[in-house]
C-alpha cells in the first residue's frame, strides 16, 4: 500500500495565493518522500490557462528535493 495525498497550494482548492511558504512545503514534502509516499498538488490556473507564478516556484522547489534523491 502507498499513501497518496491530494492537496492544494493556494488559499483553498483552485485558488491563487499560497497556503504554505516554500520552506514549509519543501520540509513537509521531504517527510512524505522519505516514506516513499506520493503528493499531488492542486494548482491555480486563470481563465487563459496561465499557472500562478507562486505555484510554479513551489512545484520547482519540491522538484529540487526529488532531484537530490
Describe this structure in words.
The chain has 69 residues and is an alpha+beta fold. The protein has helices at 22-34, 53-67; strands at residues 4-8, 38-42. It has a two-stranded parallel sheet. Helix 1 packs parallel to helix 2. The two termini are 21 Å apart. The model has no long low-confidence stretch (mean pLDDT 91).
Q: Mean pLDDT, nearest integer?
A: 91
Taken in chain order, the helices and strands follow as: EHEH
Structural class: alpha+beta
Give the C-alpha Rg: 12 Å
Q: How many DSSP E strands?
A: 2
Strand content: 5-15%
Strands of the widest sheet, in order across it, are: 1-2
Helix content: 40-55%
C-alpha termini separation: 21 Å
Gross geometry:
globular
Major sheet summary line: 2 strands, parallel
List low-pLDDT spans.
none
Number of helices: 2
Kindly list the characteristics that best describe this protein.
69 residues, alpha+beta, two-stranded parallel ribbon, 2 helices, 2 strands, 41% helix
